[in-house]
Amino acid sequence: xxxxxxxxxxxxxxxxxxxxxxxxxxxxxxxxxxxxxxxxxxxxxxxxxxxxxxxxxxxxxxxxxxxxxxxxxxxxxxxxxxxxxxxxxxxxxxxxxxxxxxxxxxxxxxxxxxxxxxxxxxxxxxxxxxxxxxxxxxxxxxxxxxxxxxxxxxxxxxxxxxxxxxxxxxxxxxxxxx
Length: 178
Ligand SMILES: [Fe+2]
Ligand SMILES: [Fe+2]
Hints:
This protein is α/β, with parallel strands linked by helices. It is 29% helix and 25% strand.
């Protein structure tokens, strides 16, 4: 699972997760950074799936603990790969946490899905939930409104240009076929 949505959203997302998983547990939950829309639903998720492993940056793991959530965290960093079943997850540092500490972005190599969290954002126009886009353009359009620190922004952009996703699963707005 990539993000929980906020607390209210988790209440209607969880039954959908259950309808997909049936009696199987949810094993992993990726949290990009500690904000309400990314993980405000962590309490109901942990209640429903107490053994879920939360995949996140070391800073986010501290935040989760700091807010009093007793979650089993699995800390990742750029350059680390997680392989499980058909999934091959690679991670990118994303300065999205409080005081610009690092959160994470994730790319699943086998499906070509990149979870962009807040980084790539298109408003939904005419109800189109999936639009066509180009990866290089998406990366080049990342600016100081997305990541204020220039050197870290440029570093992330360079790293992102080393992958070639097929689909951008956006945290907000339309997703993109690329
Ligand atoms: Fe955010
Ligand atoms: Fe967001």
